[in-house]
Amino acid sequence: MTSRKLQENESPGGKLSRSQLPRLTKRTLTVLLAAFVLMLGAAGVSVVFATNPGSTVTVTDPPEVASKPGPKVAPASYPITGYFISASSRDDTNSNKLSEIKALGGDTVITFGVSLLPASLETIPASCLIDGKNCARVAAGSRSINRYFTFLDGSNWGRQALKCPDDREVDSRGQSFTVLVLPNTGSGCTSPDGVYNVVVAGGSSASAIDPSKSVASAATKLGMKYFAGLPAPAKRPDAAYLPDVSYQGTLELFTERFLQYQASANDVPGLAGFYHHTEMPLTDSATFDSVLALYASQNGAIHRALPTREAIVSPYIDARVDKSGISVDEARRGIRKIAQTADGVKLNIAIQDGMGTGKGGAFSASDADSAVDPYAASIVGNGAWGSKYLAPNKDYFEAAAAGLAGTGAVLWANVEGMAPATKLNACGDNLRGQTTKSRVDRQLQQVANARKVISFMWDSYFTCKGAGVPLKNQLQAGLTTPIITDATFSPATGKVQVVGFNLEGSTATVKWSGDKGQKVEKSVKSTALDSKYGVKKGMNPQLEMITVNVGPTSVGKTKIFSVKVTNSWGAKATEFNSLLS
User: What is the pTM of this model?
Assistant: First the structure.
């Protein structure tokens, strides 16, 4: 990272003791005196108003008496605290990746699952051999076999995965496989009807480390949390958005064996839980009941094998007007149905905000008439945010919170760390490209009521150079950026309350229209900080609230006001527009 960030032992506004003064040079004293004069000027309150629309006059109030220095400013932190990653079979690669994420304030990593795919003897990996013969055929022996499957997750499962007499560990041609013989009906090792299914899993180098175990180990050492991807079914050939349930029983048995393996080989503090690889939109449509059934089944399996672990589900917003998108009410009912699949597991529901795919919009009521950005336009076409999307993301998250009330499930946000691909932001694949930090900041404004924010995806959208600077570097350079998520203004009292991230020690600039249409602007130092605002409100715990007072005033017909802040680190927030209540 090339940018400099404030070190923890640096304190803006720190003062010198008398014992230090005699050692100062004349030049140093001159510089300090000049800085002191500038500080006095900065302590005043500037007011901009107009006697007639279009003309402005600036007045600076006398500086206020300096208050006593407050406590040391807490380290800045970016609101994203978790990332989807690709796991490696190399310990140093995983350790370095997690260390980079932790340096950005991340404490959580998530990997996608792998699909349990129908196969045939002809499609079993040619290198999976026992005594020179097809490993699945040898493991089947004289049994009646219903179906063959592969689960090629690149892992080296080892002997801890073997539970039944006919399970096999295979090292062949430099590769490692685990062959499981599962009953076609019932559970355990013996099938009541004498019919079985064979699964060939693994497929890593015989000398490789299990990627899941490697990431869990790195997370444990760094005090982080790791959510491993669960096995997933194939997609239906006639409806690719739905799972193939023709072998649901086999998937359930295999999930049990997968989790039993994790419990015996990977039960370390860093393994926080599991991620449901199969996705669905945030809807209550019965079309997706098969996905809900899968969630319930796998959550129950987690609770039986590793009862202290959690699960993550990540449904997506689709608010596009031209695609008959999902309404806010449908989303509220839909998330409740998802929450009811928990089956004893603590379930975190991380809503994908759709800004990386063009399915969702991060805009407010005050800019609903503004044009969509070029990335969104590449998906929904040119037009205003309010005409292209049924509602802003904030409305969906508020509805989701209401839908989760009383369920025990926890609302997270999955802020998509990419953008629809254009000619200007190539990165990753031809559908998705690099986004910008300013766009991610705007997305974060919409999801303040989510307890935790995660993002898709570290590899490669945060690491590729794309249009120039990798997104992770942009975040590192902007760790101290204040992000405003809400603001209220009471003209009668002059009180302005600003909610957001990294607001400590902020000066707020408020703009509005007076009763005669004149433009009014005031910059005022915050008089109060509520650093526990998010915790008390059951929202993101990093949320803070500052209060400033611009003095009683009157306003005209224009109800829009704007707020900008500059915080203790000297970082500035993007101007936030809101409506007077």
Answer: 0.86
